[in-house]
From TrEMBL:
Domain called Apple: residue spans: 349-438
Domain of life: Eukaryota
Taxonomic source organism: Camellia sinensis var. sinensis
Biological process (GO), any one: recognition of pollen
Protein name: Bulb-type lectin domain-containing protein
CDD domains: B_lectin, PAN_AP_plant
SMART domains xref list: B_lectin (SM00108), PAN_AP (SM00473)
Keywords on record: Disulfide bond, Glycoprotein, Signal
Pfam short name (any one): B_lectin
The protein's role, per its UniProt record: Involved in sporophytic self-incompatibility system (the inability of flowering plants to achieve self-fertilization).
Length: 470
């Protein structure tokens, strides 16, 4: 009996010892939160409540540098969507991510040297502040009992690196003064700030520019109420993706969402200069390229110069619209359209008209003027443009109500030379643009249209006669 008791005590002691050893040897915590008393060590991670995202230290292959990153918890190989200290890696063999005494979330090395900080001015002590990883992929700094997103002290969504996730905002916030944008890494193995950025230009009629060292390489075209006018792939065709654009006195931003939360999608500014949207295919266990830009010759900024129109359905791709001619005939003949087009005749204000162009990517719009009266239709826009002798073109600001803007939606007026236009096939998208031309050019265009229509009708009559004969 005594031996049995000894055996029982020994078993209990051994079990307790094993449990203690097991608890202290776990390299990662299952919690989603870091507190002032519970920092994150180099060999630990936190996982969002729904096990969608994971945060921890990560070292690229063949590197001693350590970065605090967020990645998808269940996807292999590891897909990183955010890096805290991308330009200040930890190079010591140990470090911590913790709540600092000033309330900020910081990365420190083994000697408590500051590597990275959220760098906020916080009025309260750190005792009631936590950092939490959400299922959206957002890493937020907040007061312990305050779950209101409006009261976050800091959030990673306001400081994107190279990836835009569903719910993230690309653009300007008046409250914080931030203009959130994507910047590529230097390479697949080096997440430090690279050459390429994808940034919303809030001047004029807002649109997004892809730049290399601040030089424009590609632009999205402005938002027309349905999509960016230069991204026809955004047309809804049963996609799980939704897109939104907000422009008011407090915010100007673009974001996207998903109608199915089981689907993963991300927009990546790659180190090669390509903007790539990926969607995760669960059955194939791979990231599928969904869309990318720039994708063809006409996506290159100013490919056909001033007043030139780029059209991949034509050969050569550059053309001058009616009333214009190539500025450099020799270069144009050698299929170099960068010098663009010039007017054949100067228009006389009050004795001119407008050439309608369909399925257009609207011109570069940094200096465009937005007349934001939603009741204004295209006829109203024309009247506004006619009264301004500097007006070179106009279009509807918002085509979501009437398709072409004829029923209202506000106006966009250009008073400078028109740059980086593109024409799509009817099935692709784009919208109507009206360019100011001289009265003489309008007469010539009208005569040409009449001749083509007359010729077409004559051919149809001839064909009918032949069919009647046989």
């Amino acid at each position: 009996m005594r031996n049995t008791q000894k055996l029982h005590c020994c078993s209990t002691l051994c079990l307790s010892t094993i449990l203690i050893i097991t608890l202290f040897s776990i390299p990662a915590t299952s919690f989603d939160t870091i507190t002032s008393t519970q920092p994150l060590r180099l060999n630990q991670t936190i996982v969002s409540q729904g096990q969608v995202f994971e945060l921890g230290f990560f070292s690229p292959s063949n590197s001693i540098k350590q970065y605090v990153c967020i990645w998808y918890h269940k996807i292999q190989p590891r897909t990183i969507v955010w890096v805290a200290n991308r330009d200040n890696p930890l190079t010591n063999p140990s470090g911590f991510l913790k709540i600092n005494q000033d309330g900020n979330i910081v990365v420190v090395d083994e000697s408590s040297n500051l590597i990275w900080s959220s760098n906020q001015t916080i009025s309260s002590t750190n005792s009631n502040i936590v950092a939490q990883l959400l299922d959206s992929g957002n890493f937020v700094l907040r007061r312990e009992n305050d779950l209101n997103p409006e009261n976050y002290l800091w959030q990673s969504f306001d400081h994107p690196t190279d990836t835009l996730l569903p719910g993230m905002k690309l653009g300007w916030d008046a409250k914080t003064g931030l203009n959130r944008y994507l910047t590529s890494g230097k390479s697949n193995d080096d997440p430090s700030t690279g050459e390429y950025s994808f940034k919303l230009n809030i001047n004029g009629f807002p649109e997004v520019f892809l730049t290399r060292n601040k030089v424009i390489q590609y632009r999205s075209g402005p938002w027309n109420g349905l999509r960016f006018s230069g991204v026809p792939e955004m047309k809804p065709r049963g996609s799980v993706l939704t897109f939104s654009f907000v422009m008011n006195r407090d915010n100007v931003f673009y974001s996207f969402g998903l109608t199915d939360n089981s689907v993963y999608s991300r927009l990546l500014m790659m180190s090669t200069g390509v903007l790539q949207r990926y969607t995760w295919i669960e059955t194939s266990q791979l990231w599928n390229p969904f869309w990318y830009a720039p994708k063809d010759q006409c996506d290159r900024y100013r490919e056909c110069g001033v007043y030139g129109i780029c059209d991949t359905n034509d050969s050569p791709v550059c053309k001058c619209m009616e009333g214009f001619e190539p500025r450099n005939l020799q270069a144009w003949g050698l299929r170099d359209g960068h010098d663009g087009c010039v007017r054949k005749r100067r228009f006389k204000c009050g004795d001119d008209g407008f050439l309608g162009l369909k399925n257009m990517k609207l011109p570069e719009s940094s200096n465009a003027v937005v007349v934001d009266y939603e009741t204004m239709n295209l006829n109203d826009c024309e009247m506004v443009c006619r009264k301004n002798c500097s007006c070179t073109a106009y279009a509807s600001k918002n085509i979501s109500g009437g398709g072409d803007g004829s029923s209202g939606g506000g106006c966009v007026i250009w008073t400078t030379e028109l740059v980086d236009m593109r024409q799509y096939a009817a099935a692709e998208g784009g919208q109507d643009l009206y360019v100011r031309v001289s009265a003489a050019d309008l007469v010539r265009i009208s005569n040409a249209v009449y001749f083509k229509l007359h010729l077409k009708l004559r051919n149809l009559t001839s064909d009918s006669s032949l069919n009647a004969t046989y």
